[in-house]
Amino acid sequence: MGRLDDRVIIVTGGAQGIGKAYCEGLAGEGAKIVVADIDTAAADALVRSLTDAGHEAMSVVTDVSDIQQADNMAKVTIDRYGRIDGLINNAAVFQRPSMSRVPFDQVSVEEWDRLMAVNLRGTFLCARAVAPYMKEQGEGSIINISSGTVHFGAANVAHYVASKAGVIGFTRVLARELGPWNIRCNAIAPGLTISVEDPDEARLEGDRQRMQARSIKRSELPTDLVGTAIFLCSSDSAFMSGQTLAVDGGATMR
Ligand SMILES: NC(=O)c1ccc[n+]([C@@H]2O[C@H](COP(=O)([O-])OP(=O)(O)OC[C@H]3O[C@@H](n4cnc5c(N)ncnc54)[C@H](O)[C@@H]3O)[C@@H](O)[C@H]2O)c1
Fold first, then answer.
1. Which of 53, 93, 118, 220 is the most exposed, having the fewest neighbouring CB atoms within 10 Å of its CB?
2. Full-prediction pTM beyond 0.85?
3. Could you say which of 3.40.50.150, 3.40.50.720, 3.40.50.360, 3.40.710.10 is the CATH number of the domain covering 8-246?
């Protein structure tokens, strides 16, 4: 028996990287997985590998920054599975697609707006899309993916850090507003995580430097984040809401 047997969980940006690890880990605990990603080929490949392994999964092509597509993601999930127990708002402009790393005054206004549209508005749109179904059920768990850069401070990614700080504020408001329906809302702040199979030298160097700041002196991998996601989706965290859990090897402490 899994801790998430028959729970229906949507993972945005679930096709690759850390999102894929969430999908695999949650499926391993018995959840039915909806992979909502802009990359159709990668999402379909993941669904095939999950179903081949005996899990229940489907993909829905979703650009989280688009109102209709976010609403459609929730509707298609209800049509197929009849309920939505969890939403992990993980999709972001981060490395797929990649963002610029430049001083704040060199970030183009267009890129600033695109990061806000995907990372922050997308989180809002997807929460808004699932909330009516969760209210009707009288339960649900929404998990918003922020970033350790908000607490750590990170130069040259002002647009990204601002969007992820917004995610934490939004999480707290959602927790207050949806709590009366027994819908919990929490955030995870991952540390720098090696989420591509072939990291370039710049990323490896960044990882070596970040390791010095950690209490646990090793690289962070996507699988390091999965246990926290399972916990927040499960009834083990039934009385927790509005929290931001840093999963970064003890780099930041609050
Ligand atoms: N990897 C890290 O070091 C790190 C650290 C802190 C926080 N995070 C956060 O964790 C999450 C996952 O990180 P990752 O490294 O796996 O990211 P990634 O860039 O490798 O993957 C992002 C996923 O989101 C999808 N996506 C992009 N735009 C989308 C859109 N508009 N609609 C739907 N899907 C879209 C991509 O296709 C991809 O599958 C992100 O929110 C990221 O900001 C990552």
1. 53
2. yes
3. 3.40.50.720
Q: Buried b vs exposed e over 33-69: b needs ≥16 C-beta within 10 Å?
A: bbbbbbbeebbbbbbeebeeeebbbbbbbbbbbbeeb
Pocket residues: Cβ below 6 A from ligand 1:
12-13, 15-19, 37-39, 62-65, 90-96, 118, 122, 145, 147-148, 190, 192-193, 195
Q: How far apart are CA 157 and CA 86, in angstroms?
A: 29
Q: What is the pLDDT of residues 139-197, one digit of tens each?
A: 999 999 999 999 988 999 999 999 999 999 999 999 999 999 999 999 999 999 999 98
DSSP summary character for residue 120: I
> Which residue type is seen at 137?
Q
